[in-house]
Cobalt ABC transporter ATP-binding protein (Halosimplex carlsbadense 2-9-1), 273 residues
Amino acid sequence: MTDGDDTSAPAIQASGLRYAYPDGTPAVDGVDVSVARGERVALLGPNGAGKSTLLQLLGGLIEPDEGTVRYFGETADADAVRDRLSVLTQNPADYLFNPTVREDLAYGPAQQDLPDGEADARVERVADRLDLDELLSKPPFRLSGGQQRRAALASALTVEPDALLLDEPVSDVDAANRETVLALLDELTDAGVTLVVSTPDTELVPRVADRVVLLDGDGRVAATGPTREVLTDTALLTDCDLRPPQVVRLFDGLTDDPPLTVEAARDRLGDDT
């Protein structure tokens, strides 16, 4: 937060976004998105729906053909708030360009005016939280895909952003570290960090979002609303070429209020194991 920051303004406010690929194919077509401070939002849609492109537009990595994006009620210039806004796209290797993982994690804080030792302390804290301690001295190109994704996330977090935009954040991450990443995202949002996650995975959405922006196959918004409302509308999801969460499908027709996750179903039914 900066002096004079209007805390009632959305973290991200996008209006009328349009973007076409070089061949003229529309990727994002007339999208409006508003993300409140501290909100958790999922950009959900099938492959090819424009989710990744929309995430890059919201993060200021690419310029829209039409429309505007404003940040924190202050500016339409993403670079002006880059130390408050961290964006990770699908390829984690794009964010790992230094000789070692430690240097990649330290790169962002090095651009900030931090007290002596604070950058190193941030690197240690984030590395420990994401179980990267033993990888800090390694060259990033020698990491597995899942390790690279965790290292890229760590590099985004060491700047301590107010808003975090992630494209498929647990793709390629093994089961144990997947839970580590998701728990950390919970901690960040509990602390007030704004989170936007792009994913085609309806099973992931309840773990990372309270609200969903659902895209159809043509880069348009098909619906937006609370996670439960969107994920239990099986007809809407099917129309958008998405498979409803497994538990929702299992409870379909049995209740008007199905659980969204296996854990919630277990709590609902009572775990006799």
About this structure: Residues 175-190 form the longest helix (16 residues). The chain has a mean pLDDT of 92. The beta strands are 12-20, 26-35, 40-44, 66-71, 85-88, 163-167, 194-199, 211-215, 221-226. The first strand starts at residue 12 and ends at 20.
